[in-house]
Amino acid sequence: MEVSLRQHHRLLEFRGACPLSVYDHLEFKHFKSIVAIAEEGTITAAATRIPLAQSALSRQINELEDALHIQIFERDRAGISLTPAGESLLRFARELLQTRIDVVKAVQAIHQSTMRPFRLGFTPFIEHQVISTVCDAYRDLFPKGNIHPENGDTEDVIRRLRAAELDAALVTLPVLPDGYCIQPVMHEPLVVCVRKDDPLAQQDKLPAESLNGRLAIFSDPRHHPRAHQRLLEMLEAQGINPKISNPTFNSEHVQWMVRERLCIALIRQSEALHEDLTTRPIEGVNWTIDSAIAYRKEHDQEALPLLLRDLEKRFSVAEPSSPKKPPQRVREKQEQQRLSFGGQNNTSS
Amino acid sequence: MEVSLRQHHRLLEFRGACPLSVYDHLEFKHFKSIVAIAEEGTITAAATRIPLAQSALSRQINELEDALHIQIFERDRAGISLTPAGESLLRFARELLQTRIDVVKAVQAIHQSTMRPFRLGFTPFIEHQVISTVCDAYRDLFPKGNIHPENGDTEDVIRRLRAAELDAALVTLPVLPDGYCIQPVMHEPLVVCVRKDDPLAQQDKLPAESLNGRLAIFSDPRHHPRAHQRLLEMLEAQGINPKISNPTFNSEHVQWMVRERLCIALIRQSEALHEDLTTRPIEGVNWTIDSAIAYRKEHDQEALPLLLRDLEKRFSVAEPSSPKKPPQRVREKQEQQRLSFGGQNNTSS
DNA sequence: GAGTCCAATACTTTATTGCGATGGCTGGCG
DNA sequence: CGCCAGCCATCGCAATAAAGTATTGGACTC
Predict the structure, then answer these.
(1) Which domains does chain A have, with CATH numbers?
(2) Fewer Cβ atoms within 10 Å of its own Cβ: the N or the C terminal residue of chain A?
């Protein structure tokens, strides 16, 4: 019986499974050693920090270099320094060590209480597609986790974020980066919406002065005071005196106002337009609506670091002005998904 | 002497350094065990695959769960299954194990021959900003590495990629995904460039039929035969009969032709325009120029997997139609870099 | 109720790692 | 010039951790 077991081991070593390989000689403890030596400058100093005996650390690194056939350090008098290979390895060592911490924290959180729900605030100005991308990312990372999106005005969302009633919030800039961090996710140009038969539509870019007295703004000071104020400042800097309309986030409403020749308005470039309307950029300026995810630096949501890391990938494949299609990964060989010059999808409604 | 050393150890355990922590109980070998158990369904089967004794594996997992205070597996009759926490952990385990392999391969390559240069092909249609982003990513990952960008026509670049004379290539789609893989990096809408005083400029979206007989194309069959053919097909599908001009990639040249009323032309939406010109989308279609990085599946460039991984992050922060600014990471609290509604940068030349 | 399959446990054996000591090397300093 | 100090590599030995062997006990099947 015991003989047959041992034979199995032998046999399996030659199967395609995943038996011993060179890579197995590299463990997280080696990463820690490498980081410590690189930071301390000597094996001796690093050893006291690990903590470990100097001899043990020296041996550990030598055996690693031997197993991997990589010379990580250059030993010369009075110390030890990184080789080019070691410098790259150091970079990855730091990254992976941090990832390990994030993973453990997140998985611990899932275990305790099957993970408390992730409370994601968002403001009315955030596009739905952005919210769903964030939710998808979360569910992909934590299949059994719960994510609770809740909307609210910017100040309200920020206040709740700061009060730890939210774990993260999707907001549009500008916001005061006070007590929390932000990571941008999308930038979208702002353009002027006019009737197609408006004289302004003749021009390709609208001079700022041509908007004076006609441009209405619909942003609500209560929904996002800083953005509202910033918008007024920017308009003033361009010599534009806007009409302050009743606030609304309803794009249909805004477009109706423009169609009725009551005003012209600023809208997102990607907004679906009524057929009587068109958009024009403003000459000499480059205003955008910037969406970002905000979170407390001292957060207690263990899922957050991994989610942020994943979002960096999600908001990938820069795709100007067509906010559809979740990020597609075409890594290994497969049907080429998108033949360019391809879709006949109508972008307008 | 020996006493003082040991005292140092004691002291340092309480410093902020990086002494023993919970996370250190999780090593790569645990990841391997978790993956094996999850895939095999029983500890016994997984143990023969690792290879390891069943008892050892059982203990290893139990001790890990104990140290991390995470229940990874659910033991019931007839086997073992993942808890929700375990499912998430499994995901990260696979990812990190692959990363470890990629890291070791890349660093080994740096060591041997101080890493052979990374030969990156690109075609004339690739925006310079894309190339520089890729080069930046490479240099960031491998400070001592060399990257050699070389340009060429699409077929030439693809041929050299297939012949292993290039390690990767930035190309515009479509290309036959034959023997190599592609990973998209950017999509850019194609629009029609017309004079501002052209009657067509009155319209907001140009009906396909209005282009018939006027649209000239400048794509070179030699530079990219498939894209050329695809473009012709797409035009034909819309009933557009194009004028075939002498091929050129010089945007100034194309714009000059349009300014001289010789034709109208398809250009990238983000192209800098002469002041007499403007652009209009074509109604009912959504043509884009798709940039992608192509590489052999059986590549021998060890830097490639890590570069691809990093590029997923680099081409981040979807930023419609303003191809500037390398990706900025605003992770930890710092000056909020971009106040929205912010720049007064002129996008046109 | 015997057979089977599986995880967990007890105990033994092996491997790893740690420690202290030593030697070689280099650079600084008297 | 030579001595000392600092550093890394190596060695022998001891402690610890991990793996292996054998066994137990539970649960399901027939």
Answers:
(1) 23-111 (1.10.10.10), 115-185+291-314 (3.40.190.10), 188-286 (3.40.190.10)
(2) N
